[in-house]
Design brief:
This protein is mainly alpha-helical and about 260 residues long. About 65% of the residues lie in helices and about 5% in strands. Strands 1-3-2 form a three-stranded antiparallel β-sheet, with no helix packed on it.
Length: about 260
């Protein structure tokens, strides 16, 4: 389901509700089947905590305008799939949550940098005088630290410099390349409106919400005969969730493994 959702997210910037519902109800059935097969309710006890953590976190990100509604529904399904009888298991919802924060964050960072590099010609016109020297100096410092500074200190220095470099680069991408003109006829529920058009009285036709446009908002824009609007696009994050799930299933969670050893 996550693989299909990732493809849909890349292609259409939205995840069909049917995929989320299959994951939600499938996760519930799997949890119940496990409980019946092993004659235990141990795996059901932690489901409320799993829902509170995974769904609660994703809903918080949704309210902040960082995630879409499809991401939230998928996370609700995962909270049932990853119900666990052992909180410190490599396959628990806690392990998944940590991996989503870690590997999902890495995915988001690298994807944003990749987008900026692909559209570097378009991005260059937004550079300030100090940006190019700063980027060159950062890359040179990373290379020199790797080859000159003793290991493992060189890794920490290189990562620190890379993060400083990334903050500026990601800022430029997010503020200049993540906006497009979209026909009102192609708008979908949840699209993030960057700036609302105004009516003849100078009032905004619809508000700009962190949670995106509603069906009523889109209908109002059509009734006012608005042809196109500027919307903010985000990187599809479902692939990041999918990547974190794969890591959890195949490898586990490196932090919990270290905690268990200690």
């Amino acid at each position: 389901m996550l693989l299909i959702a990732s493809i849909k997210d890349f292609k259409n910037r939205e995840v069909p509700d049917s995929i989320s519902y299959i994951l939600i109800f499938g996760g519930i059935l799997l949890s119940l089947a496990y409980s019946i097969y092993y004659s235990t309710i141990s795996n059901l006890i932690y489901i409320p905590i799993s829902v509170l953590l995974l769904f609660g976190f994703s809903y918080f990100m949704y309210v902040l305008g960082q995630w879409g509604g499809g991401d939230v529904k998928l996370m609700l399904g995962l909270s049932f799939v990853f119900s666990s009888i052992n909180l410190f298991s490599d396959k628990s919802f806690i392990a998944l949550f940590i991996n989503i924060l870690l590997f999902g964050g890495v995915y988001g960072l690298l994807s944003t940098i990749f987008l900026g590099l692909v559209k570097i010609k378009q991005l260059k016109k937004y550079f300030q005088r100090y940006d190019v020297p700063f980027f060159i100096a950062s890359i040179a410092a990373i290379i020199l630290s790797i080859f000159i500074v003793p290991s493992p200190i060189n890794i920490f220095i290189a990562v620190g410099i890379f993060m400083i470099f990334s903050i500026r680069f990601v800022f430029l991408v997010a503020n200049n390349l993540m906006y497009i003109q979209e026909d009102v006829s192609k708008l979908t529920e949840g699209d993030w409106l960057a700036e609302s058009p105004k009516d003849t009285d100078g009032k905004k036709i619809v508000p700009e919400r962190n949670t995106g446009l509603t069906k009523i908002d889109i209908q109002k824009l059509k009734e006012k005969d608005i042809k196109s609007v500027t919307i903010k696009i985000g990187l599809p994050f479902v692939p990041g969730i999918f990547f974190a799930v794969l890591i959890t299933i195949l490898v586990g969670n490196p932090f919990l493994q270290l905690f268990t050893i200690l």
